[in-house]
Specification:
With 207 residues, this protein is mainly alpha-helical. The radius of gyration is 18 Å and the shape is globular. It starts with a helix and ends with a helix. 41% of the residues are buried.
Length: 207
Amino acid sequence: ALAGLALGDTRGSGKKLQIIKDGAIRPLADLVQYPDVEVKRCALLGLCSLTLGVHQQCKHSVANAGVLASLLLILQDVKDIRCLRTATYCIGALAEAAGVKQNIGMNHDLFKAMIDQGNQDDVSILRNVAYFLALMSEGGYENHPFIVEEGGLRTLVRLMSADDVEIQEYSTFAIAHLASNHEYQVRIVQEGALKPLISMMQVHSQP
């Protein structure tokens, strides 16, 4: 019900902010840890709906209520694909806020858990991971070492060859951000990024 109310907030973030003000985030975060998978999934949908959109206050409010710890538990312990889809999507939406992005960058367990989700076979999860890494790699070099050393670069190179266009685009954006860092340009080539880049250029150059 909360997810429906938040998603129906099409004229702004008034309803979302009211839901947050009324104290809905903490109970939803607690329900994410409930044993029943359907309860977890519904709670995740509620949290995700509150993070969607451009209103930074909503994203900060969700992140500051201990939700990141609940999302980490989902990534580490839950195998249900629907829960993982929503959790990875939610983390990507939260990372759109600069302050939350900084917190995630310092939360190495959560950061690594998102990179590890790049080993899934589910297209939606891989889209979410590629989008997340594109966000985390832009706007500065502070997250580049962690992405490269913890397997994110290897994941991105593999995702560039995915059949899904969105996955290709997000992973290519992330590689472009990493390539702006001179320290990793040789490493990017060594990991095999040139081949999928050339393949994409050939496809897009065809009449």
